[in-house]
Amino acid sequence: MLLRNRNFLILFSGQIVSMVGNNFYLIALPWYVLQLTGSKYDLTLTGVVQTLPGLAGLFIGVLVDRWNKRRTMIVADFLRGIVALALFSITIFHVVNSRNFMIILFLIPLAELIGTVFYPAQMSLMPKIVPNSQMDKAMAWNQSGSSVAGIAGLFGGGTILSLLGAPFMFAFNGLSYIVSSVSLFFVRVSESKKLSMQRSGLFVAILNATTNTVALRVTPADVQGRVFGALGAASTLSQPLGMLIFGWLMINLNLTIVFSVMGIIVIGGSLLYLRGTLRNAGVPIMGASE
Q1: Main-chain dihedrals φ then ψ at residue 218, nearest 5 degrees
Q2: What is the DSSP letter of 219?
Q3: What residue numbers bound the domain in which 157 lies?
Q4: CB 24 within 8 A of CB 172
Q5: Is residue 240 part of a domain?
Q6: How confident is the model at residue 61, as a pLDDT?
Q7: Which SUPFAM superfamilies does the record cross-reference, listed alphabetically (predicted)?
Q8: Number of C-alpha atoms within 13 angstroms, CB side, residue 142?
């Protein structure tokens, strides 16, 4: 059974914690920026600098292929935790204000840049801790966990934000990354030397880039980092269009309407996606046909 796989369970649990923390951060950040500067343009700029580091995935994946994946993930999560706690410190002690807003615009892309290292390392590590026969279920569990973390972040994040404020949500995000980093010390995996590159496998993986499971199955181990780095960058390339649309909506429409519609879409989409991924993971669903 997949959940009896100690390494997968540790990795999965640590990622759930960090994803909840990251969703808290994603909720708190735009609210804090708007409260700090009162400018919708600054809010849009924050979103833009948040997406740009993802393009580094095109190049970072090549480096990740050469590094020890577990150690890379440990260092990446630890550094993201430090950056998030730095953001907590400058906000809780009111170091940052509308005049030195550039401090935040520096920390945000720094955290995202570190994150571009983590994702390809995580995906490259998966085949080393999960048997090929269970890879489909492992990816389904990961996607289910991401959906659950997103829903928890939406519902819990709003409550915590109203009770404690944005700085404490930044602190929770930082601590969640530290917890994830520490948990990875307990993952025991043997990482083999570089294997010979199979060009056909890499080509097929790129063609099927929409499905992580397919990419994991057909991509040679020595190039998985660059493949998933490229997939992350491709995802980032699609985000500026979304930011332009989102920015226009925020400037021209009432913020309450924008965030309400976004919340409905995210919650509805997450629930539908969660239903599908739970079914793929073999989890019984009430009301689902046999």
Answers
A1: -105, -10
A2: S
A3: 10-277
A4: yes
A5: yes
A6: 77
A7: MFS general substrate transporter
A8: 18
